[in-house]
Amino acid sequence: MNFTLRQLQYFNAVADQRNFGRAAQMCNVSQPALSVQIKALEETLGGPLFERQARDILLTPLGRDVLDYAQQVLGAADRLDQFARDHSGGHRSLSIGIIPTIAPYILPGVLAGLRASDVSLRVQIREARTDRLLAMLRAGEIDAGVMALPSGGNELFELPLFEDRFLLAGSAGRLQTMRQDPEALRPVDLQTTQLMLLDDGHCLTDQALEVCGQDRSSGLINMGASSLATLSRLVAEGFGLTLMPELAAKAETGAVPRLKLQRFGKPQPFRTVGLVRRRSTHAEDWFDSLADVIRVVGEDIVSITRI
Question: What pTM did the predictor assign?
Fold first, then answer.
């Protein structure tokens, strides 16, 4: 249909003012010019939009239906105009996805770092598991994802940022039953009956199973907790042992004083945290800047973990 935003603006003004003269003043045009545009809009839409009375103007049934659509279109146009002005003025926006076993621990520092480097940057955060983040990334719903590597997919570009080592977590009593020599402790020494892991769908569970030399068919592994916070509280009460990412160690031991940690012997198991984007995305400065901020925040967190 060949209607214009100007016609919709004039129509909305008349519907609001219920008077052609006042609507024309509000739109800074002459009344004849406004009337011509309203008439053209009515011809395009196939009927009268207003019922003209001696001292009032009412919307016709068609006018009432059109008004709702017109206001939606005008609202979207205003938002697009604001976006264009912000963008031309140097304002930018980013949509970043991040997995739940990383998000709570680095987001405060990352958002603070991004704001310090660019106060005009608008950041939208989407927290989801890896498979969902990859789907959103491929669909263009997010610009980049923070997750454990490798993510998979030839159409994706992966940038490793830092290593997040795994620690053995549990109650003091549980840890005392392990080998006394920490340097001799290996993830493969853990019995399946001792392990508690996050429920299916978390890539951290797959990584933990891999470093422990187990798979999902291994019997008696409890995979039911939905978050590291829940898992920390369970193992702190002696219900089992788990692998805790170093990234989460400080926060979880601070929240759960009875939770104890122990390092594995060398080489220590770890996951690689990285930033992922589509290969088709232009390699603009924002990606490198975002990667630098995440790397600094992540490395600072893992470096202060002392056991």
Answer: 0.69
